Amino acid sequence: MSFLRFNLFLLFSSGVALVFFVHLVYYLVLSRRLLDRLPGPKAPSLLWGEEWKLYSSTPGQPYAHWHKRYGTIVKFRGAFGHQVVSITDHRAISFILTENAYLFPKARGVRAWFKATLGEGILWVEGRDAHERQRRLLAPALSPQAVRSLSPILFETSAKLVSQWMKILDRQHADTAEIEITSWAGRFALDTIGRAAFTYDFNFLSQEELRPNSLAEVLDGLTNNENNKSSFYMRALFWLFPPILNIGKKGEMIRRTKQELGSIGSRMWHDAKAVGDHEGRTMIAFMLKADAAAATPAGKGDVIAQMRTVISAGYETISAIVAWMLYELACHPQIQHDIREEVQQIQCHSIDVINDKCPLLESALKETLRLHPAIMENHHEASETVNIPLDEPIPGTEDTQIVIPKGTLLVIPLNIVHRDPEVWGSDADIFRPERWLERKKSQLRHKHELLTFSEGPRACIGKAFAMAEVKILMVTLLQHFSFTCEHEIEAFQSFVIRPRIKGQSTSSLPLVVHKL
């Protein structure tokens, strides 16, 4: 009997492999025929295409080289010859992100990653109706009005971080100390999202030392150590074969992350239901209210998936943005000084006052997001064969549209869009916050100035919260400390783009912190 089962399993596995192979060959032939006229580099490897170059290079560097040489539309090959189209043409970007957002869902590999780590939440779901239903559950808690009411919590967690850094200085009996920023930024982000979204205190900022914690460990372990071959194989293959996310140590880490986030989310939801706070201003209060008013209450699994998503997104993106902004301020002392003069006048806990009184602070944050977007590559997939219009014809032709075959992977490299010298001038690669003030004064605006939070109906609904969180933290820190950097820092590709000391394998940003 066991022999028969083995044969049946072998037959089934062979059938699955054959179907996959036939589908891949058909897709490669079709896409090659339709995309043949697009310019792009010759793949250095028949097996891996350009994947190793994308993995091992400075984040975004291959795209910069390709688009400088080939123009706004570039075709290149990934693993097993599957074709990818990189797009920086502004007309095409509008068509993909805004006008026809639901025609271009997230790539299968990206969706598989979100499902494996977070569940079937708002980052995973596709289709207009399904996405809008999930968005209605979360959006009220992340509106500018809701964020305004959460400002006191953001000031409180920021003050806790200041208190811990003051204790570090006091223990050293000094006004100056080198502090590892990335770890504290991550814990600040977790405490803030826990308090503001779920009335839950992870209690990281009440600890004088960064002690081990299961949640922080799984989040760091999953996305903060990409310097190994297994991570390369997974990143190269999950576009074509998403089940690879379940394999090996990385697969175990993914399952552990989902389990840990789910356990915390379940505990939060149970406590919130028991208390029954429908009138609060936190995300969980809005979710309770929406759930009670819905004709069909959300299932526990759906709610937990959203909570996993909020915790993970609030941790990954915010910790990276905070680290990069403090790094840029540390490298530009005059800008740091000028912003400090702005924030010294903030005496009340109000995001409205910060928005009104600190234009240079906002400009510095936008400049950080421009040069250091947390997610550098915006990946989509054509759900059907479609014509995409272009601003400019393909080089060597008069065609102002391209035919994209169904299933083709599309990528929008934000580093190219955000550093376009035709938009930003010859100093596009330089951190210069004043450019935003100059553009506002002259009423100069281009398409897609800032795609860090994407745009259109699938834009990040947490933008207002994220901007307020970082602004309030910067106001609080700059009122108490100054920052300098004595190390050579480089960007590296993790789940998000993180800083690290050049040559190291994990995120690191030691800054010299001086008490004012």
TrEMBL record:
Metabolic or biological pathway = Secondary metabolite biosynthesis; terpenoid biosynthesis
Instruction: Please state the protein's primary subcellular location.
Output: membrane
Location in the cell reads: Membrane
What are this entry's molecular-function GO terms?
heme binding; iron ion binding; monooxygenase activity; oxidoreductase activity, acting on paired donors, with incorporation or reduction of molecular oxygen
Which SUPFAM superfamilies does the UniProt record give? Cytochrome P450
Keywords (alphabetical) are: Heme, Iron, Membrane, Metal-binding, Monooxygenase, Oxidoreductase, Transmembrane, Transmembrane helix
User: Which segments cross the bilayer?
Assistant: 6-29
**Which cofactors, by name?**
heme
What is one term from the GO cellular component aspect held by the record?
Answer: membrane
Pfam families from the UniProt entry: p450 (PF00067)
The entry marks the following residues as binding heme, namely C460
Coiled-coil region list? none
Its family remark reads: Belongs to the cytochrome P450 family.
Protein name in UniProt: Cytochrome P450
Q: Which organism is it from?
A: Agaricus bisporus var. burnettii
